[in-house]
Amino acid sequence: MGKEHRSGFVAVAGRPNVGKSTLLNAILAQDILPVSPKPQTTRVRQLAILTTSSAQAIFVDTPGIHRPRNRLGKYMNSVASHALEDADVVLCVFEVHQAPKVGDRLVAEAILQRAPKTATIAALNKMDLVRPERLQSNWNAFLALLPAAHPIGVSATREDNLDLLTQEIVDRLPKGPQYYSDSEITDAHERDIAADLIRSAALALLRDEVPHSLAVMVDEYTERGQRGAYIAATLYVERDSQKGIVIGKRGSMLREIGKQGRKSIEQMSGRKIYLDLRVKVWPGWRDDVKALRQLGYG
Ligand SMILES: Nc1nc2c(ncn2[C@@H]2O[C@H](COP(=O)(O)OP(=O)(O)OP(=O)(O)O)[C@@H](O)[C@H]2O)c(=O)[nH]1
Ligand SMILES: [Mg+2]
User: What protein residues have CB closer than 5 angstroms to ion ligand 2?
Assistant: First the structure.
């Protein structure tokens, strides 16, 4: 008799920038989730679905849990909290090359409060960056935050220990059917993934002041058959000065964002992309209920 099939939801939680989305892209071997060197890259819930012959792990990528400063931040935290409540397994990501920060404590508290009885795995990520003499003390300090969690050291960028990590997760899933077909790797529409990939490209290129004020909306996504697809998108910022920064000297920054964004959309979609970008100012959109809803954060 073969092994019984397992399936369920795996909420991925952690403070901003610890590598949650990078880890999931690596596990799926496809870049469908936005990743950047800046904190608070992920803003919405997005599924990353791993299907094997005997299991289906439905990972729920969530925004980094943090102290919110505006309505967008509150929305992002609520997305993470709900994912914890609905999870069969919690995957908590820490970055092990640094000692725990206040933000990590906040995350551990949220897990203990929202999912106190849920099987939890602590992925101690960025093992490639940890100084050997710091490893043991950092490791112990993180485990003290979540004493019942099963720890695994990983590196998302080097893809170290990811097979072991997924095995430990699958072992903790309940018995259940395959909910999504083999070919479904996410629940997000290509249009929304494209908007996030453009934003990721911009975050990697822009300096600290702009990223949190940036939102991207795809206005048009037209198939051109053999010739690929045409995408027109708008980058929204909150102030005129930010618009200048995003456009850059004689348009150089916007051109670079377009180039990098196009490359990642081509990789994700497997076809040629023509990308048209423009920049608009939307004052105070992060605290504007209507704007948040229109931008997909509500
Ligand atoms: N050196 C190293 N860098 C990593 C590793 N995993 C992720 N990173 C980097 O960490 C940064 C943040 O990665 P993300 O995947 O966007 O982090 P996140 O936790 O999803 O962040 P939010 O969406 O903001 O909550 C990126 O620059 C990644 O390349 C790792 O294992 N080693
Ligand atoms: Mg993320």
Answer: 20-21, 41-42
